[in-house]
Every structure is written in C-alpha cells, then in structure tokens.
C-alpha cells in the first residue's frame, strides 16, 4: 500500500498536494477504491441502486457520529458514548411527540438537546472533575443506554408524525435526507475546523495543551464545547435514525462508537490528538459503510463483522503512527 501511494505521489504530485490541502488522505482514497472493486466483484448486487442507497444511509449515520468524534479526538480526547447517546436522543424525540403529544419539531429539539446535554456532562466531568475521558465516556455509554431502556421499559416507541418521518425517509431529487444532512454538516464542520478559532483551538489543545494554555486558550470551556458538539452530532444521528425506522429504539447504535472512531482515524485524525480532518472522516465513513454493507451482502455473521471492524481500527492506528514516525 505504501509503495502504491508513493508511486501515485510521484506521478501526480500537484493533485495529491491539493487533496492533502483539503484534508483528504491518499491512503484512505486508495483503500476506498479497492474496497469498491473487491465488493463489486464478489457480489453482483453491490452496485445496484437499492444497495447504493443502503450504503449512503448507513454511511450517513456513522459519518455524522464520526464528525463530532473527529473534533474530540483531534483535541486529544475520546468519546465512547456516541452510540448510546444516539439511542437516548432517538428515544427522547419519540417520547416528546408520542407521550407528551407535542408537535413534531419538538422532537427535533428534544433529540438535539438530549445529545448536547450528554456531551456537556462528559466535558464537565472530564475537565473539571479531572477524570480521564475514557472513563467518563465509558460511563456515559452505560448511563445513556440505561436511561433509554428505563424510559421505554426496553421497548421501541412506534408511530411518529409524517413530517418527522420525512427527515429519515424523504428523498428530495432522489437523495435520502440523512445523506443531505451528512454532507451539509461535513461542509459546515470542515469550514469550522480549518477556518475558525474553534477548530484551530481544538487541534492546538490536542497538540500541546500547555502551549495552548500559554497562548491564552481557555481549555476547560473549549473542551466542554467540543464534547457538546460530539453529543449534538449523536443527537442528530439519533433523530435521523428514529425518523428512518419510524421508532425510538433504545437498542439503536450498538457498537456504533467503534465504527465512528475507526472512520475518523482511517480518515487521518490522530488518535492522540493534534491532527484532525473532516474531509478525511467523510472518506473514512464511506470505507466503514462500504465494508459493513459488503460483509452483509456476503452473509458474513455479525460477530465476524465486529472482529473485522476491530482489526481495521488497530491497523488504522498502526499505519497512522508509522506514517507519523516516518515524517519526523
């Protein structure tokens, strides 16, 4: 893989430079292309329109979660709770319209608020409580999932308003609404990451927290905002998933945190902070979506799929660290 990437860099240096300036990682693009070729050759259904739509929908959910995780990881943090927070957000949105009888747009507010609130707790306890982010977000993973199950008695909440279902099932111009939301969020967060103080401060904190503090960056409030952003993205993912399946499911998003983190790292975000790329995360999410979809088409058992995702995560971190050492 490294030899192929080096050959392409020598052959088209200007194009590669442009890709890297935008945040794309050449190795990730090569992996995506190879995956498409392999899956397409193994399954005749892979490139069917219906299956491509399924890939887009799966990628949108993982990708939205990965966008928020990208900012947290870039700041040398971690968020293991996004899958559970996604489920809780969907449950809260469904309860708002079903049990409280409020208009559909209150479900949107409820889902986003639930996600942001979980992120706020993660950020506050991590920074001001001086508890490692791994422990805090692992705890939130259990708490959010438990609260979602408690609120629903372990049952899915069915029957949502048509206006709300459009957010998950609508297809203006033939494009699923979740995919549109994902692309719009990716563009917006890419701009925030590379063009605003919020994004640059996140990377600065991840690179050198002491130096960032010396520069006058208020690390505590900024970390809280970063975790709130991650929680907010989980809220968006929960809202769209709820609208797509017409139910608030307390078991939704199981192991999605692993896929989201893997997507961000594959895309080029450094697991140990100091480097983040939203554009790369988009490609990483596509890789995860294509991989999972292809394995489903090939009837690979779910537990083998989880093993493959775990292996991909370890390989992604290993390749990233090896690349970093070579560039030093």
Automatic annotation (TrEMBL):
GO cellular component: plasma membrane
Keyword terms, alphabetized: Cell membrane, Membrane, Transmembrane, Transmembrane helix
Cellular compartments annotated: Cell membrane
UniProt main location, coarse: membrane
Entry keyword annotation includes Protein biosynthesis: no
A Pfam family the protein falls into: BPD_transp_2
InterPro entries linked to this entry: ABC_transp_permease
Transmembrane segments: 28-47, 53-73, 80-98, 104-124, 131-152, 172-193, 226-245, 303-319
Membrane topology: Multi-pass membrane protein
Superkingdom, taxonomy of origin: Bacteria
GO molecular function list: transmembrane transporter activity
Protein name: ABC transporter permease
Upper classification of the organism: Bacteria, Pseudomonadati, Pseudomonadota, Alphaproteobacteria, Rhodospirillales
